[in-house]
Design goal:
Distance between the termini: 58 Å
Helix content: 55-70%
Strand content: 15-25%
Strand order of the largest sheet: 2-1-3-4-5
CATH architecture of the largest domain: 2-Layer Sandwich
CATH superfamily of the largest domain: Histidine kinase-like ATPase, C-terminal domain
Number of strands: 12
CATH topology of the largest domain: Heat Shock Protein 90
Order of helices and strands: EHEHEHEHEHHHEHEEHEEHEE
Number of domains: 3
Radius of gyration: 34 Å
Oligomer: single chain
């Protein structure tokens, strides 16, 4: 229960205030002499101090200064009691750190309101300090995890280089007819792995930088509020909610990255396809925004869940989104100007007419696929991208994943206006 200490040399005033405080539901103790203040504070803790200004031996303002200079007691809110209508005296109290003041004779409604306001303000200040500690801890964890990612990238890059060097040494013993083909294949595999790691690190940096910037600005605003000793609790609450929102966003991104990057066997469970699609934008959404590519989602909220591996399906969707982005980027390199309406990706989910399967469409406004390449896009190592930008494995791997789910992926439509891929996944029979 909240404990309040009353420091006043007038016994009648002390008894009156104690009776009122008890009626408010608080515990209280009192000190009739200023010299009893600090011994009582050493014996037990208090949540609030009511301190009379005009007392013999030591006046209330001197005691207030001593309290605010003491490292253990400086955070306890102090309400000054006075029977004098001296504005300068009250101003001095506030400058010395008083939370509020009450004129004598003391009225119950005023006493109750100002005690409640001082305790509420102190509660917000403590919550801010707690959030600050949590923020600092999460920031350190983020730095540690980022360093771990950087170390992992360096370690895997070094391992890839060792494997490539060994592969090249082995190729030297092969016939000249196969040497050029093997070198090309190794370079494609290397490019795919390094590009995947590089794009992931770049995307996460952009995704995390935005909430970190908001958190830093919010923390600076909160610090200024505290330094000015402002008592606007609504303003403090809004700043705290902003910190909570953005730290939550960072935790969601990091947790999703951990799940997505985990290597495991196929794990089947009930999956909401719309949620899998939304999760893709945790890692690629910022890249699409930076490339000024509009995303239009028409996700049917009533589609049923299917039994699938969400991680593998996300890999398929990410590959289609990446290919769509590259196709739009390639179209931008042409001489004819493009309108903003042609630089978008559209995703549609729904149930087939026979209600036996789900259909997911990925539409882009890119360059399209030529008729001579349309039949080869799912072949391993086949790519139409520039050298060093694609391995030709993305659609081949995606085809294998969808097939393992007893589904189908196909090129539904293509032309100068763009390309549409259709994925069909079976529903369980009811």
């Amino acid at each position: 229960m909240t404990k309040i200490l009353i420091v006043d040399d007038e016994p009648l005033t002390v008894q009156q205030v104690r009776d009122l405080i008890t009626g408010f539901g608080y515990n209280s103790k009192f000190a009739l002499k200023p010299g009893y203040l600090f011994p009582l504070l050493e014996q037990e803790g208090f949540d609030l101090i009511l301190l009379d200004i005009n007392m013999p031996e030591t006046d209330g303002i001197t005691l207030l200064r001593q309290l605010k200079m003491h490292p253990e007691y400086q955070d306890i809110p102090v309400i000054m009691l006075t029977g004098m209508a001296d504005d300068q005296l009250l101003a001095d109290c506030l400058e010395c750190g008083a939370a509020d003041f009450i004129n004598k004779p003391i009225r119950a409604i005023v006493l109750k309101a100002r005690i409640r306001a001082a305790l509420t303000k102190q509660g917000y200040i403590r919550k801010i300090e707690q959030q600050k500690e949590i923020l600092e801890q999460q920031t350190e964890e983020l730095k540690t995890y980022r360093k771990h990612l950087e170390d992992l990238v360096r370690e895997r890059t070094a391992k890839l280089r060792e494997e490539i060097d060994e592969h090249r040494r082995t190729e030297e013993s092969l016939q000249n007819a196969y040497k050029e083909l093997q070198n090309t294949q190794a370079q494609l595999v290397q490019s795919a792995k390094l590009a995947s790691i590089g794009e992931l690190a770049s995307g996460m940096a952009h995704e995390l930088n935005q909430p970190l910037t908001v958190i830093r600005m919010t923390a600076q605003i909160t610090r200024r509020i505290l330094l000015k000793n402002e008592s606007d609790s609504d303003k403090l609450r809004k700043e705290i909610e902003m910190i909570e929102k953005n730290t939550g966003r960072m935790m969601n991104i990091i947790n999703h990255l951990r799940i997505f990057s985990r290597q495991s066997q196929q794990e089947l469970s009930p999956v909401n396809i719309n949620e899998v699609i939304e999760n893709c934008f945790l890692m690629i959404g910022e890249q699409l925004r930076l490339h000024s590519i509009e995303i239009r989602k028409k996700l049917n909220p009533d589609i049923p869940k299917i039994t699938a591996d969400a991680n593998q399906l996300e890999q398929v969707f990410l590959n289609l989104l990446t290919n769509a982005k590259d196709a739009i980027e390639e179209k931008r390199t042409r001489s004819e100007p493009l309108s903003q309406n042609t630089e978008r990706i559209e995703i549609i989910t729904g149930v087939s007419e026979d209600r036996r399967s789900l259909e997911i469409l990925f539409k882009d406004m890119g360059t399209g696929v030529s008729s001579e390449n349309a039949d080869r896009i799912f072949d391993p190592f086949f790519t139409t991208k520039a050298a060093g930008k694609g391995t030709g494995l993305g659609l081949s791997i995606s085809h294998g994943i969808v097939t393992n789910h007893k589904g189908k992926i196909e090129l539904a439509e293509t032309g100068p206006a763009g390309t549409t891929f259709r994925i069909i996944l079976p529903l369980e029979e009811s």
